[in-house]
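4.2 Preliminary Data

To establish feasibility before requesting continued support, the project team ran the inverse folding procedure on a target of 239 residues. The structure was first converted into the token representation described in Section 3, and no sequence information of any kind was made available to the design step. The complete token record follows.
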């Protein structure tokens, strides 16, 4: 038999077992500890405030914005083109209800956006199937070189998930085109009428839209303005 337990030993053992009688130590929550649910809620709140700030910053530039479903590039409202706004009060009321991504209506914002799509494993079609040509950025560079035009590297630019780019330009002074512009070339899309783009800061399942170059959008280059004038009708689509 082992040594007989004294009252002091029994009291110490009782403290180790805690009120439950278990040998496992009792952990008590302090005022500085948080649960996983509380941390998740705090994270969503920070995300919500961050996206509201993104929307307000775009509106300050005169860009009309509307909510996209959180984590997607799908509009969260019907009639998004008509509801896109620069009104700070309306933006605050909207983004106070959820961590929405931010969509931008280019034409109503006085913009035209050149959307250079990333490569997704497909081969460029002829006549773009050349060494070093893989995506929309490469195709645009090739076309501009053929016409002795410079690559617009100093305008406002957003990097899209997958490595694409969206180049923002000032829309020509005339009214918005009545129909969405046709693509300029393979993987070189034009976003203007009946189209939208996610604002930098938005996060989709494929990744984040990030600001690559912050600047005032440059005037629409003549080669792009000419394309807007000559475009034929096509269905609208998102970025």
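Position-by-position output of the design step:
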């Amino acid at each position: 038999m082992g040594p007989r337990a004294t009252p002091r030993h029994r009291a110490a053992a009782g403290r180790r077992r805690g009120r439950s009688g278990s040998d496992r130590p009792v952990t008590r929550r302090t005022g500085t500890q948080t649960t996983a649910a509380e941390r998740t809620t705090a994270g969503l709140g920070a995300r919500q405030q961050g996206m509201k700030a993104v929307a307000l910053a775009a509106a300050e530039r005169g860009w009309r914005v509307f909510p996209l479903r959180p984590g997607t590039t799908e509009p969260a409202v019907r009639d998004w083109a008509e509801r896109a706004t620069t009104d700070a009060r309306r933006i605050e009321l909207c983004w106070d209800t959820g961590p929405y991504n931010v969509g931008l209506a280019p034409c109503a914002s006085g913009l035209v956006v050149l959307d250079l799509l990333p490569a997704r494993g497909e081969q460029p079609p002829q006549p773009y199937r050349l060494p070093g040509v893989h995506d929309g950025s490469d195709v645009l560079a090739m076309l501009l070189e053929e016409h002795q035009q410079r690559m617009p590297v100093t305008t406002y630019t957003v990097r899209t998930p997958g490595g694409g780019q969206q180049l923002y330009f000032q829309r020509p002074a005339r009214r918005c085109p009545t129909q969405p512009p046709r693509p300029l070339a393979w993987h070189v899309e034009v976003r203007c009428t009946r189209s939208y783009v996610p604002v930098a800061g938005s996060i989709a399942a494929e990744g984040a839209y990030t600001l690559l170059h912050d600047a005032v959008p440059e005037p629409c280059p003549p080669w792009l303005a000419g394309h807007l004038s000559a475009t034929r009708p096509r269905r609208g689509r998102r970025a």
